[in-house]
Predict the 3D structure of the following.
Amino acid sequence: MHEFSICTLLIKALDQEYDAIQPPPTGLKSVSVMVGELHQIVPDYLLGAFTALTADTRYEGAELKLEFTAITGSCSTCEWQGTIQPPLFVCPSCDKAGIDLITGKELFLQSLEVKT
């Protein structure tokens, strides 16, 4: 279950962003995270990890909002662009392997909603 390690990294990023807010907030209402489908995250597992890792911290009770981006790519041979269904990364138009990925690898904090 890689969701715990991913959540640990997200909380480290959250710490940096939260600590940079001026004036300092009094709490965290919610955090939105952009997740590319290539990470194969199970939403319930990540939500559970967030709840467990934020218990008894300044983030306890905050809502974790997940937004997923599909895996999209383009083919340099035939110039096709579109959604890719893993595990095959083959162009559906010309059957060429080696599609260039456009989206699907994202994993970042998108926004924070804080209490002031």
